[in-house]
Amino acid sequence: MIEVSTPGKLYIAGEYAVVEPGHPAIIVAVDQFITVTIEPAKKTGTIQSVQYSELPIRWTRRNGELVLDIRENPFHYILAAISLTEKYARENNIPLSFYDLKVTSELDSSNGRKYGLGSSGAVTVATVKALNAFYGLNLDQMSIFKIAALAHLEVQGNGSCGDIAASCYGGWIAFSTFDHAWVRKQRKQSDLTSLLNSAWPDLSIKPLAVPENLRLLIGWTGSPASTSDLVDQVHESKDEKQKLYEQFLSESKKCVTEMIRGFEIQDVDLIKQMIHRNRCLLNQLSSISGVTIETPALKKLCDLAETYGGTAKSSGAGGGDCGIVITDQKSGILPLMSAWEKAAITPLPLHVYYQERSAHESKG
Ligand code: PMV
Ligand code: MG
What we know:
It is a single chain. The chain has eleven helices and 15 strands. By secondary structure, the protein is an alpha+beta fold. The chain has two domains: 2-209 and 352-363, Ribosomal Protein S5, domain 2 (2-Layer Sandwich); 214-347, GHMP kinase, C-terminal domain (Alpha-Beta Plaits, 2-Layer Sandwich), CATH 3.30.70.890. Strands 1, 2, 3, 6, 9, 10 and 15 form a seven-stranded mixed beta sheet that branches. The longest helix has 23 residues, at 242-264. The radius of gyration is 20 Å and the shape is globular. The two termini are 32 Å apart. 47% of the residues are buried.
């Protein structure tokens, strides 16, 4: 039996800007996992996942017609990951066979997703990795990222694939997405194997060394929102407010680049300053787009963290879910935890998850 576990993720900085190529984000992998197992089968295969066993299938209307929103349903990510990995196998003359694929998850609960730790990215990566092992494809880490990213894009369409990178590489990473238009064009023009072998413009995934005295705290505010809906909404305002949006993009790039420098020179103060700066920029993006990123509960989470010597911001698309705190002051941690609990914010005892990897930077 093949068994592969991949971690969930949390965004630290650079959200929304990171969906545009060349704009960095910092993301961490956390120790909550999705596990995919594959066992050989005969004549028919099965796919079974706890993720969608009780998940309602969301739908909306377009021109009056009922349309399923497949972006929230993990089943479609699994199917896209299978179809692309098997395409690669076929292109490389590896015979296909039958199997039973099973998904178990710590990232989802029976009433849908739990803490917004990115189960769709993790399941896509886990499926590609499990089939890589099952068929003996010998795909390297970057090729696994690329297949999972292509699968994810087919289903979600509007994401940066930063969650895929975090789930693939583990640890703390600096991530910039690839030129999506270029990749889509190549998908039509060339086979998958050549696309995996070519450099993807703008893509950069770089492990970050974390300063020893840096502490990451995570709080959960409940009321999860749909990331893909929020990204759509921000993009709807993009044309109308083009100048302000571009200003947000370039300021976010400056801020996260400076934060990455903070990691390189191991300067926690600089990292903290840039977390605060990024929080302000995301609040500006909220005013530009009319989309609530920092909810009142996330504001409370951040403000309390600042009272106890940390700096904080919403994590990911916001609108609920998690906030993150960076601190180097151990003494403030316990009082902050109890202040959070009084304010109905749940501290999450997660740790950054590292896996074996080559130490150097991966470019497209
Ligand atoms: O809500 P999350 O944790 O899935 O993060 C979304 C981050 C965005 O930048 C808003 C979208 C993306 O795909 O990068
Ligand atoms: Mg989210």
